[in-house]
Inverse folding.
C-alpha cells in the first residue's frame, strides 16, 4: 500500500516528467489511491528523493504497466531494474497478457520498448469535450443508476463489446467497485436494458469509460443519445469531461467528434511476451 509520502512523491515526479517531454502519463490514479497492498507498485529512491516509479494494474489474468524515471537519472538502468522486478512478480501469478503503456510523444519510453521483447498492439486517443450544442431524446432512451441486479448484464456487455474474457470482466468490476467517485449507469431503450456507461469524478474533472451498447442495438442512435445525456449532465456541473477511444474504432471516434470531443493526446500499448 502506498504511503501518503509515496503518493506525493509520485505526483511530483509525474509533473516533472510530463513537463520535460510535453506529454501526459496514464498512471490510473483512482487505482493507485485504493491499493490494498504494495505488490503492484515499485519505487526507486535515492535518499529522500523518488527517482523512478512503475505500477502494475491487474484485471483478472491481464495486466497493464506504466512508469517513469526522473529525466536527470535516465540511461542508468533504473527503469529496467523496476521492470525486471515487476516482471518477476508476474511470473508467479496467473498472468496471460502484459500491456505496456507509453505516451506516443515519449521518446524515452520508445527507447525502452525497443530494448525488450515487446510489439505494438494498439493506440488510444485521449479526448476532451469542448462546448457545443447537443440535443437529447428522453422519450425512448433513458439512463438509470446501476444496481446489483445489473451485474450479469454489465459482464455480458464487457465480454461482447470489448472482447475480454469473462474472468477479466469480473475482475474489472471488482476494481471499479473499490474506487471513490465512480458511477455506473445503465442505458434503457424502450424499457429494455441495452448498454452501460461509467463516469468517474475527481474534483472538477469527469472521466467517461466502459461505454458499451449490445451489438444488436448499435446503429440506432442509442449510444449517441445516452452519451449526450451524460455529457450535458456533467457540463451543467461545470466539469471538464474526458474519455478514451481506440484509434481503430472509427465508428466510436466519429460519434465522439459529433458530440464535441477533441483529441489532445495519444497513448500507445505494447504487448510484452512471453510471460
Amino acid at each position: 500500500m502506498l504511503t501518503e509520502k509515496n503518493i506525493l512523491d509520485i505526483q511530483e515526479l509525474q509533473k516533472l516528467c510530463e513537463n520535460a517531454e510535453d506529454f501526459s502519463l496514464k498512471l490510473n490514479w483512482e487505482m493507485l489511491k485504493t491499493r490494498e497492498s504494495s505488490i503492484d507498485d515499485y519505487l526507486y529512491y535515492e535518499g529522500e528523493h523518488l527517482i523512478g516509479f512503475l505500477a502494475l494494474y491487474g484485471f483478472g489474468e491481464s495486466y497493464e504497466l506504466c512508469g517513469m524515471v526522473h529525466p536527470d537519472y535516465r540511461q542508468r538502468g533504473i527503469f529496467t531494474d523496476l521492470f525486471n522486478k515487476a516482471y518477476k512478480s508476474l511470473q508467479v501469478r496467473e498472468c496471460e497478457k502484459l500491456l505496456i503503456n507509453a505516451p506516443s510523444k515519449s521518446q524515452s519510453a520508445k527507447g525502452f520498448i525497443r530494448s525488450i521483447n515487446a510489439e505494438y498492439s494498439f493506440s488510444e486517443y485521449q479526448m476532451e469535450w469542448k462546448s457545443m450544442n447537443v440535443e437529447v431524446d428522453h422519450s425512448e432512451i433513458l439512463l438509470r443508476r446501476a444496481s446489483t441486479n445489473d451485474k450479469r448484464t454489465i459482464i455480458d456487455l464487457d465480454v461482447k463489446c470489448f472482447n475480454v474474457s469473462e474472468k477479466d470482466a469480473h475482475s474489472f468490476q471488482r476494481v471499479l467497485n473499490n474506487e471513490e467517485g465512480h458511477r455506473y449507469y445503465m442505458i434503457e431503450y424502450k424499457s429494455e436494458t441495452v448498454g452501460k456507461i461509467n463516469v468517474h469524478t475527481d474534483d472538477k474533472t469527469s472521466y467517461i469509460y466502459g461505454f458499451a451498447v449490445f451489438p444488436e442495438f448499435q446503429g440506432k442512435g442509442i449510444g449517441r443519445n445516452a452519451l449526450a445525456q451524460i455529457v450535458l449532465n456533467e457540463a451543467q456541473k461545470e466539469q471538464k469531461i474526458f474519455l478514451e477511444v481506440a484509434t481503430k474504432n472509427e465508428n466510436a471516434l466519429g460519434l465522439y467528434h459529433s458530440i464535441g470531443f477533441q483529441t489532445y493526446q495519444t497513448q500507445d500499448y505494447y504487448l510484452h511476451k512471453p510471460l
Observations:
- The mean pLDDT is 90.
- The longest helix spans residues 4-21.
